[in-house]
Batch of 3 targets.
Target 1
Amino acid sequence: MRRRASLVLLAFAVFFTALSPLLRWYAFPRLVKIPPSQYQEMVLEAKPATLLDYGTLQAKRVEKVTIVQTLKGNVEESEKIERSAGRDVVVWDSLSYVQGPDGKMVSQIPERYIFDAHSQAPVHATGEMVDGDAVRREGIEFKWPFLTEKRDYQYFDAQARTSAPIHYKGTKKFRGLDVYYFEQTIPWTKVPYPKKMPIPGVDATTLEKQTGTTRWYTTKRMFWVDPVTGGPVNGEEIHREELRGGTLLGGRDKVTAFAGHVRMRPDYVDSTVELVKSQRQLVLLMTSYLPWGFLFLGGGLLALALVLEARGRRPRAPAEEREPEPVPA
């Protein structure tokens, strides 16, 4: 009986031991993914800031500039691309809406970001764009991969329409989480005008061609990223824009269009941290808790099976040394 029990325990030990790496290296990359219908809103503020009054073309110091960013999963488009790509795809339609202290629009830039639901690598398909212009992204945007590594990544800059390295700068504590800190600096770069801008009597899409005035931009981008989910829990930018040359400025060489230190609003930081904390438990379940638990369980069952097998093989005492068995009445 002991021998049969030890064989059963041995079978379970082999099963759970084999299941441990299978769950981590086979199931996790295929099961854990970004849902196609995700919706997220983020509010960032620059307080105070310098902002160009497009009516007078004079830069003014203002109390704050607000940037509202929305990410909305486009399920219909993702399913369409999945059929041709042969893999799980997420399509995010995003909008960056900038408004001044009076609540009026300063600019708005829509984007369509298409990426692999598991790895977050970009997927190049029809519709990938920034402000109506077709782009071909390289690297990441908005989110890092699951199980983020301590290394540099290529990060796509929507203003410049190009990718550049974003550098890992170390591990920090943020709201009780151990996070990876990344920085990216975009030097002064000539960039296109947003297609929607409040410039009286001027079509922003042909502004540079009409006036010869160009738009330039530089930023220092900072992210605090949870390494388990790859989700940023905080983000900041030291951002500057200028208009240079041409007839629009009335003989001036350049004028500041926007300058400020952009930070996530505290209540959105709180909600983002809570969201990431809840999601990281699901990722840890697949990458740490269950694989290690199954490995230790398999080891324990193996040890128990060996003990039972050893006891079953122990030689019995000689007949004369054994106590006489009781005779039934």
Note: The helical segments are 2-31, 75-85, 207-211, 266-312.
Target 2
Amino acid sequence: MTITVRELTYYPVKGCAGTTVDSAQVLGTGLEHDRTFMVVDAADGAFRSQRTHPSMAAIRVEVLEAGAALALSAEGVEPLRLKVDRDGPRREVSMFDRPLGAAADQGDEVAEWFSDALGAKSRLVRVAPGFDRDGWGETPGKVNFADAHAVLVASTASLDGLNARIATRGDAAPVPMDRFRPNIVLTGNDEPHFEDRVRRMILGSVELAYSVRAMRCNVPLVDQRTGRRAGPEPVRTLATYRREPEYKNKVSFGAKNAVVCEGVVTVGDTVEVAEWLSR
């Protein structure tokens, strides 16, 4: 079967809505503009996410002027156009109680905007020049403000398999792919979760290498259009067949990858699997 790229999405502000594109430049830290910005607690610099603020899903972010500006919109607040300060005042930030170092604060106006949108005092920060963060796993790679890895890959076969299982329950609707917030969606292979076995792949001029399965928290319970929790699916059904004992019995969906060769990937590109993990 011929595997191809079905969809490409980057998420400029961690936790906020994604931007789906036909073609993307892929850097060592992932798709260009992906998780370059992060919303943090104004008091202690801890990151904010849909885990505690599901309404972040409905905050729309448009990257303008090749990253020099952002356009922000959300229900209940006036739209804001922000001039990006790549070298703003430094603010110490953290993720999962781990310090990430200093990020570039984007100023009071956008801080007030996110505070109003989320109902919690917040600041917006950007990856600062010289930021250097390692991932982990089989191939660690580098990462910006994503949880721990550069690129999240999922497949239509995995989603189809999940939705078929949900359908057998008869009490829930199928879930869309955006519940899992992947960067790259693959199609053309009908084996659910085949992306777990891909150790190296070439897409366009990009090469990715497997890091780890993607462990899921409560974010897949959030309707990405409305920013409201709509569970218990898909986590309820994933728990019946995708538990990972080595990760405290969390459920998994998708595979996280490192970038080992930068380049350009385009929807429709054929995917060459350079290395498979044996069944």
Note: The longest helix spans residues 156-169.
Target 3
Amino acid sequence: MSRQLEASDRNPPPSNRQLLILLGIFVGSILVIIWLIGIIANSLVWLIPPSVEQQIGKIVLPAYEKLAPATPAQNTLNQLLQRLETNLPETQKQQDYRVLYVPEQTVNALALPGNAIVIYSGLVAKAESENEIMMVLGHELGHFAHRDHLRGLMQKLLWQIAIAYIIGDSSWLQSSAATVVNAVSQSQFSQSQELQADEFGLTLLQATYNHVAGATDFFARLSQSRGANYAFFSTHPAPLQRVAQLERLIKQRNYPVLAKSPLPPALR
């Protein structure tokens, strides 16, 4: 009995201070992993050649193509996109972008690998001018310019690899296609990436119309909505924050704000 008491004295339970130290080490390790994944993703994303991105697109896009039948609205959106493309940087003009118009009430738009922009009819229904739609399209082209659409995918995949390594379960690798689709659907852009894409869209709007009317209208209108569960809110910064930044840029660059163009008939 005395030996057992001596043994317990030698191995006392950890103190609160020790537990806090262990917790700090654990949390610190997680933060370091997050930091490293961000650095690795930001570095690798610029090394992905267009041919590889197209292969990723062939995995991801069929699920969205099934939801986007050929319609006059989709044709019109692609015509608007072509107008914006004429003002893209030369390196980006080499890409063949297209719009997939999904007739669902979701208020959202996505930039996906394979140079496809997905726009839901719920978003188009919220627009009141052609200029607003062009701003949304320009914003998504900004994500392509900065490779945000691949950065989010890369970060998601690196996280899955890290978790699989830690828990010793790599069964998810057995279905690479499902893994990529899942990673794309769940990846989100940071607020800085979204605001940077807004700036890119504003520049395209000015280059296309020689003014920036409608640049803030869509976001300002969304900010006035109450009680609506829009997917747009979960994947984008607060609309008022975006309006404030765009108004600041318009003032700094002295962009004119003239008459807006009406929505094309196919989008009304």
Note: DSSP finds 13 helices and three strands in the chain.
